[in-house]
Amino acid sequence: MKASRDVVSSRPDLFTGALNVSRIRDDFPILKRKVHGKPLIYLDNAATAQKPQQVVDALVRFYSEYNSNIHRGVHLLSSEATEAFEEARAKVKRFVNAREISEIIFVRGATEAINLVAQSYGRQHVRAGDEIVISAMEHHSNIVPWQILCEEKGARLRVVPINDRGEFLMEEYEKLLNSRTRLVSVAHVSNALGSILPVAEIIDAAHRRNVPVLIDGAQAAPHMRLDVQLLDCDFYALSGHKLFGPTGVGILYGKWDLLDEMPPYQGGGDMISSVTFERTIYNTLPFKFEAGTPHIAGGIGLGAAIDYLNGVGLENIAAYEQELLGYATDSLSAIPRVRIIGTAREKASLVSFTVDGVHPHDIGTVLDQEGIAIRTGHHCAQPVMDRFRIPATARASFAFYNTREEIGALLRGVHKVIELFN
Known about the structure:
Strand content: 15-25%
Number of helices: 14
Number of strands: 17
Structural class: alpha/beta
CATH architecture of the largest domain: 3-Layer(aba) Sandwich
Number of domains: 2
Distance between the termini: 62 Å
CATH topology of the largest domain: Aspartate Aminotransferase, domain 2
Radius of gyration: 22 Å
Strand order of the largest sheet: 4-10-9-8-7-5-6
CATH superfamily of the largest domain: Type I PLP-dependent aspartate aminotransferase-like (Major domain)
């Protein structure tokens, strides 16, 4: 089976300079549907992104043409499936610019990637009295695993505060780093605020004290070019479904020397080299951390999503989404009773807001009736809500298939909310 089976290259004329958003939208079949009789306006991309037809087609091809388990079969279908899955791993390697393909571990998502590091690296290196540093704007998936580990080990979780704009405070971070710090784990982009953290500086400060750093890149990977070698991060986690790929698949990147010394996270098939009742010899990287049958179709679909994004161009995506973010932020800020939560000078393409006197769930319900999908709630970041003394926000998050016209509809919807709850 050739690599072209799942490579998206059927429309080389799709992009000429600036994004041709109209043609891009044609690739996303769900954008053609209606909600409550109105065209769908999907502004919930930070929760999960929609999938281009090319990703859907890759999944269908796998299940209809060469569905088989991988790595252990000698028949043709197994060989084809194995080749496609490992091609996807190679695409991820290039996408994040890892040094070695064995540094790319397939997991269920960023959450499992973080838990893998906590339960493998963390249990191996964290002892009573040690400290783990996170930020005050983390998703629950980058808080709870470390709490579990700290409780088990008698360690302490230290939290870097943020300012009123929702920005990471580097000076306070530097004060927290000390001889007891065993790991730093922070988001690249806040899912609740959109703030872009200064991860290069965060990593550099930790490495000066020989402290490894994990970056939760779930919200960053869809919006910016990644280079784990340039960042010099020790671990990087991302989710496929936010990257326009399937749900249930994600990636943990780790430096080879760290992964090599870490014990397996789970036991089972494929993560072993030899098993007897007396002793098990573990497989080599990356398979040591991939027990059991993986989400084969998901991995292949993620590879197709990366092909698609490479065709669009991450730089083109970033520039266009910044235009959308600026327009939405300025326009929402001009509406009376609207408060933007998270005004960091460096942000990715989402805006969280409240309307005085209106619960965010009511905002979401009114907008839904207009065909507009946003996210409302605490966004799995309750400490962020506590920091701003609010129970929840309404969050509109943008992708490169969204338009200024859709943001205009959002603005009209917010005006309608204010009129209804006047």
